[in-house]
Amino acid sequence: MIKCEIMKNIITFSGWGQDYNALENIAPGANHINYKDFDNIEVLFESLRDTPCDMLIGWSLGGQLALRAIDADILKPKRLVLISTPFQFISGQGLYCGINMDSFIEFENDFTHDPEKTLKQFAALIAKGDKDALNITRILRNANNEDAIKWLYWLDQLRSFSCKKMDYDKVPPTLAITGSNDMVIQSSQIDLFRPLIRSGYKAAILEKCGHAPHLHDEQRVRELIAGVV
């Protein structure tokens, strides 16, 4: 548990297709934002404007949303934690990281036609490469998939956004955590943030870990977060 008076207001953004409170195990009692139920990112951000925030934690797409909330002056945390956050999800715009557009469109079509089945397949992809893949897949497949089609809008946010489009002078000292065997994004994307976040940047790559470091080694992730408080 994060025990520090100056970090009493913690906000989290979970990953795409996951329970809104999926980071409860590393940030118990935090304000876990259920962004799936918002019609668009503008309405989401207006609902959060001026919300007290000492630490902001984002997993995967949630990390991009955290960065965008900071860039838009919606949230002003003292510390930022990015967990398996893609610098850019789709390869292009001069950056050859991420998946290709054809693969993304195929995934999007699969999701549109059968959201529940696609989310279960995605859970396996998140866990793939992890030494505890079977257990992590089981945990992720227990996510509440009610109104799963609402994730379609947020999937499009992954398509359109690049962390190149940021004013990094607003970004606080940051901890980035990723898995060495991540099959959703390349673990090397963690290095793209380093020269841009000048307020302080610490990166940790967990060995034999997939796209869910907080499930791979909860205690280690808690220790890393405590180390930047």
Mean pLDDT: 94
**What is the helix fraction of residues, given as a range?**
25-40%
Radius of gyration: 16 Å
How would you name the oligomeric state of the polypeptide chains in this document? single chain
Distance between the termini: 12 Å
- Looking at the structure, the CATH topology is Rossmann fold
Residue runs with pLDDT of under 50 for 5 or more positions: none
Number of domains: 1
Major β-sheet annotation? 6 strands, parallel
CATH-wise, what's the superfamily?
Alpha/Beta hydrolase fold, catalytic domain
Number of helices: 8
Strand content: 5-15%
User: How do the strands line up in the largest sheet?
Assistant: 2-1-3-4-5-6
Structural classification: alpha/beta
Number of strands: 6
Quick structural summary:
By secondary structure, this protein is α/β, with parallel strands linked by helices. It contains 8 helices and 6 strands. α2 (61-71) links the parallel β3 and β4.
Describe it.
With 229 residues, this protein is α/β, with parallel strands linked by helices. The chain has a single domain, classed as Rossmann fold (3-Layer(aba) Sandwich). Helix content is 33%, strand content 13%. It contains 8 helices and 6 strands. Strands 2-1-3-4-5-6 form a 6-stranded parallel beta sheet. Strand 3, helix 2 and strand 4 form a beta-alpha-beta unit. Helix 3 packs across helix 4 and helix 4 runs antiparallel to helix 5. It starts with 9 loop residues before the first strand and ends with a helix. The mean pLDDT is 94.
